[in-house]
Design brief:
Nucleotidyltransferase, domain 5; 7-stranded mixed sheet; 20 helices; globular; ATPase_NBD; FGGY_N
């Protein structure tokens, strides 16, 4: 009897669930959106009820009218999610406040306090990456300081997928991939860090569930969860993973030398490697949960797709109006317009630091900027500059990964950004390498399905399954005439940021004091 597997990705802007058969064919899918609540410009929170309601609707939609031979043969469920996120729950698993998500920057003061208590290099040696206010040690310090009652009453602090897993199974869980990206985990001892916990006065072993491998069965769908979701009780639920690792599985990153971008609201850049990065490089280096891939270099860029959305919402409202009037997809409109502008955007450079920047700058004070405008600058120049600037950010990350020892012999792109032909041609030309595009069905939930299938024995060798199921749909080649221009422009992208960086923190302080 054919088996079926469910994969769900709980992202920053929406959740998407897909039911696959064991051969990798899509049976049904559904997605749900939810809001991010921005407060004081730098706080970013989500309501965990929105997560759960979205997941319920996804599962109810997928499970409705399923033939019995499919519903009764769903062999497993795996959920990946945005990270790092922090959600305090009480002893009954009830959230005590909104979740603080990865893009939240409230803990900058706590970040500085933390680095006054521990040497930066010692910190990096423990967690395997650059410290930043977006990670959980700083946010735990903030909660402890400003919301002491909530902190005191918190039984556990959960990631987004961990919370949904609890709602499905009644079991508190954590996966190793999200534990590493929390920066509360010691990558050397493979345990929650006692050293960092002691510094901030928190027992990580007590407040976090024990981390397990992503393909660990942590529990089974309960009778109550079955009533709410339409699933049958008893379906195995996996520990799950980050949206990044699920994406790596979905696009077949399984060997050193392979690299990829998951292009969504933000971008995640990955490169497989045989050894850990030196601690003085601005990339996250972590033990891989994928067989045959010892280490993964991981670098998150904060505002790639978000920059496009920002442009449309602020400077490109006429494009949205045109789309509504004509019925044409707005992204088709802006792709066509950007393609008509010469490479180099008539001298305009865009810096996509609308939320500060994570990799490779790790600078919460970095600012979004257009540089090089003149009286001749057009709206379309600015549009193309956004496509180019977000791609220069990708190149900046890849150059740092190479400096850390990674080889980048092939580059794949998946996610929403892989649907823009103009953007892909710009990326191929700025990176000066072929870009491999995959079948659109191989979205993040497919990576979750591979993990679930491995856990229940359907895919004993996950790498072999990747090679069998994941096929290249298209290859985008660089444009020679663009390559030469971008090679001359890119050094200025790096040097101009460095020249302005010394003033950005002071400027932010002044603006905050007068506005």
């Amino acid at each position: 009897m054919k088996k079926y597997l469910l994969g769900i990705d709980l992202g920053t802007t929406n959740s998407k669930g897909i039911l696959f058969d064991e051969d990798g064919n899509v049976v049904k899918n559904h997605s749900e959106t939810y809001k991010t609540h921005f407060i004081n410009n730098i706080w970013a929170e989500q309501n965990s009820d929105d997560w759960w309601n979205g997941i319920k609707n996804i599962l109810l939609t997928i499970c409705s009218d399923l033939p019995a031979n499919i519903a009764e043969n769903i062999a497993g469920l795996c959920i990946s999610s945005q990270t790092p996120t922090i959600l305090p729950v009480d002893r009954n698993g009830i959230p005590l406040r909104n979740a603080i998500i990865w893009m939240d920057k409230r803990a900058e003061k706590e970040f500085n306090e933390l680095l006054n208590k521990i040497d930066r290099n010692e910190y990096k040696a423990i967690v395997g990456g650059e410290p930043d206010a977006s990670f959980l040690p700083c946010k735990l310090m903030w909660l402890k300081k400003y919301e002491p009652e909530i902190f005191k009453n918190a039984h556990k602090f959960l990631q987004a997928s961990s919370y949904v897993n609890y709602k499905l199974t009644g079991v508190y869980s954590a996966d190793i991939d999200q534990a590493i990206l929390s920066q509360c985990y010691d990558v050397n001892s493979q345990k929650w860090s006692k050293r960092l916990g002691d510094i901030i006065g928190v027992d990580f072993e007590k407040i976090f569930p024990k981390p397990v491998a992503s393909n660990t069965i942590i529990g089974y769908v309960t009778e109550e969860a079955a009533k709410q979701t339409g699933l049958l009780p008893g379906i195995p639920v996996m520990a799950g993973t980050t949206d990044g690792i699920a994406s790596m599985c979905a696009i077949g990153i399984s060997k050193p030398g392979q690299a990829a971008e998951i292009a969504g609201t933000s971008s995640l850049i990955f490169a497989g490697h045989t050894r850990q990065s030196a601690y003085d490089r601005p990339v996250i280096s972590k033990v891989s949960s994928i067989n045959g891939l010892p280490y993964v270099f991981d670098a998150p860029i904060s505002c790639t797709g978000a920059s496009i959305k920002w442009f449309l919402d602020t400077l490109g409202k006429n494009y949205l109006e045109q789309a509504n009037f004509t019925g044409k997809n707005v992204f088709d409109i802006i792709n066509e317009l950007a393609a008509k502008v010469e490479a180099g955007s008539n001298g305009v450079l865009y810096f996509p630091y609308l939320l500060g920047e994570r990799a490779p700058l790790w600078n919460t004070h970095a600012k979004g900027m257009f540089i090089g405008m003149s009286m001749n600058t057009t709206q379309e120049d600015l549009l193309r500059a956004v496509f180019e600037g977000t791609t220069f950010a990708v190149k900046h990350v890849l150059e740092e990964m190479k400096a850390a020892g990674a080889e980048v012999n092939s580059f794949k792109i998946a996610g929403g950004g892989a649907k823009s032909k103009t953007w892909l041609e710009i990326k191929a030309s700025i990176l000066n390498m072929d870009i491999q595009i995959l079948d659109s069905n191989l979205d993040v939930p497919f990576g979750d399905v591979l993990i679930a299938g491995n856990a229940v024995g359907i895919y004993p060798d996950i790498n072999e399954t990747m090679e069998k199921m994941i096929k290249i749909k298209e290859v985008i080649h660089p444009k020679e005439e663009w390559i030469k221009k971008y090679e001359k422009i890119y050094p200025f992208y790096v040097s101009m940021y460095k020249a302005l960086n010394s003033n950005l923190k002071e400027y932010e302080s002044v603006i905050n004091s007068i506005c």
